[in-house]
Structures are given as structure tokens and as C-alpha cells.
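Dear H.,

Thanks for agreeing to be a second pair of eyes. The structure we're designing against is below in C-alpha cell form, covering all 276 positions.
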């Protein structure tokens, strides 16, 4: 089978899962590729959807909702499945639970004649390191590897299910939708305000412009007064986590040094420049 995965990843968790899914499919003599939507030109997406037997969609879940770049990709770039023959699977990465995270965009996909045949939730290490939300996180690679090993087993089971033709729709039940709504409704209500929560500490910023380069929405720019934000943040925390001097402020709060370096991906060789 020919399988193409399109994914959005902020700080590497979904990227890692996409790579692992690709490896599992290819190990079973399939032709699978994984492509960041930040690198997916419209014509290339159309060609892949036309030529593939299965399309995969992967994303991190934010408040039981899709990140805006993935919504835009599905709504604008993903073509209609005109003949309805190409199958689709979705996967989302999450910290604990998201209710219907992997299935939440079912109606929007269905309007383009895409039916979710398989969906799965994958727990990954916490990447939210902002001081304003002091959730525990770790950069200890041994601890991270333990979580990755569990996710890898779930990915292996998931890909075997797809290859077998059996159906798996995690997050599709009424209870899952209710649990998702409990997070999604307040998230969607406050999302526009949260898009303005990134600012830059000009006293410590070294003007390396890395945050500008890696931002998936061109939210950051440089002028005579330093680096500024436009207010179009999509909350991926990529700039916050990968700033070399921790000069990105979230809701006016700087990263606390005593918490250690922010999370910078599930493996040491990850960098956001690989996917944007």
C-alpha cells in the first residue's frame, strides 16, 4: 500500500510519532512517507491524496482541539476525496487525555468526503514548560524514553490494525465527545485572547532570529526596537522552548531557570528547523 502522512508538530512529539508510524508501515513492505504540513505545497498534497491508498493526519491536541495550522490544512489545502476510495486515519498526541481528540474533526473531514476509518490517542512527554502554567515536565532522556517505549507499542498495534483492515476509532463515542467538550468549549472561547500572550524580553534577547525562523505562522518579526509579536500565535510553544536565552515571555512571565531547560523534543537530534 502507498500511505502518506501529513502532520503538524510544535516541539517534536507528533513528528516522532509520525516517523514511528512511517517506520512500522515500511517494515511491513508498504510505501509510507511522513510530511510536515509546513513543507506541504498544495499541488503536492493533491498528488499524494490522488496516488495514495491511505492518508494519515497527525497533530498535537490543544484543549481537545486541533491546532490552527492543522485546521487550515484540512479546511483549505486538503482536497476533496472525490471518489471516496482513499481511506484516512488520524492520530493525536496528548499529555493525559483529550476525550475525542483524534476524532474531533470528523464532521469537517466528512464534508470533504473523508471518512475516519482509524483514530488513536498517543500519550507523549509534557512539552508545556511555560511559567504561568507550572505543569511538571522532564528533560531526563531516560524518563522520556520510557514514555516513548509505551507509545511505540501502541503505534505498532495501531499500524497492524490498519494493515489488517479492522476498524479502530478511538475518541468516537458520546462519552469521549462529552469529555472533549469540557476542555474544548473554554479553550475555543479564550483562544483569541491567548494568541496575544507571547512577548519578548528585550533585555536578554540576542537577536539571533531563531524564533522568527521557526514560528509556523510568521507571528514574530524584527524591527528597529527588537523582535515583536503580531498576535497570531497558535500556542505551539516552539519559540518558548527553543529560544537559546529563554527570552520568550508567556503572559508576561519569563521561564524560571530553576525548572531547567524547557522541553526540546523527544530525542536529542530533533530541531524545529527540520519540519518548518
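And this is the sequence the design step returned. I haven't edited it by hand at all.
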Amino acid at each position: 500500500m502507498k500511505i502518506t502522512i501529513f502532520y503538524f508538530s510544535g516541539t517534536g512529539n507528533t513528528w516522532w510519532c509520525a516517523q514511528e508510524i512511517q517506520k512500522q508501515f515500511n517494515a511491513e513492505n508498504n510505501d509510507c512517507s511522513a510530511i510536515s504540513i509546513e513543507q506541504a505545497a498544495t499541488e503536492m498534497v493533491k498528488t499524494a491524496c490522488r496516488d495514495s491508498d491511505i492518508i494519515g493526519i497527525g497533530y498535537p491536541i490543544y484543549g481537545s482541539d486541533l491546532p490552527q495550522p492543522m485546521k487550515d490544512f484540512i479546511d483549505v489545502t486538503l482536497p476533496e476525496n472525490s471518489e471516496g476510495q482513499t481511506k484516512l486515519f488520524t492520530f493525536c498526541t496528548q499529555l493525559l487525555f483529550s476525550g475525542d481528540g483524534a476524532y474531533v474533526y470528523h464532521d469537517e473531514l466528512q464534508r470533504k468526503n473523508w471518512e475516519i476509518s482509524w483514530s488513536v490517542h498517543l500519550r507523549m512527554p509534557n512539552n508545556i514548560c511555560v511559567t504561568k502554567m507550572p505543569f511538571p515536565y522532564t528533560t531526563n532522556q531516560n524518563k522520556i524514553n520510557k514514555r516513548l517505549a509505551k507509545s511505540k507499542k501502541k503505534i505498532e498495534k495501531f499500524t497492524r490494525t490498519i494493515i489488517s483492515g479492522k476498524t479502530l476509532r478511538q475518541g468516537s463515542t458520546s462519552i469521549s465527545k462529552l469529555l472533549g467538550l469540557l476542555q474544548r468549549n473554554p479553550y475555543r472561547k479564550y483562544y483569541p485572547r491567548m494568541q496575544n500572550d507571547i512577548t519578548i524580553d528585550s533585555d536578554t534577547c540576542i537577536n539571533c532570529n531563531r524564533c522568527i525562523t521557526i514560528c509556523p505562522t510568521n507571528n514574530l518579526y524584527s524591527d528597529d526596537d527588537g523582535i515583536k509579536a503580531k498576535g497570531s500565535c497558535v500556542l505551539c510553544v516552539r519559540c518558548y522552548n527553543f529560544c537559546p536565552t529563554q527570552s520568550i515571555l508567556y503572559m508576561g512571565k519569563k521561564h524560571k531557570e530553576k525548572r531547567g531547560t524547557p522541553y526540546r523534543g523527544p530525542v536529542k537530534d530533533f530541531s524545529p528547523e527540520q519540519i518548518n
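Two observations from my side: Residues 8 and 69 are 7 Å apart (CA to CA). The domain at 195-254 is CATH 3.30.70.20 (Alpha-Beta Plaits).

Warmly,
E.
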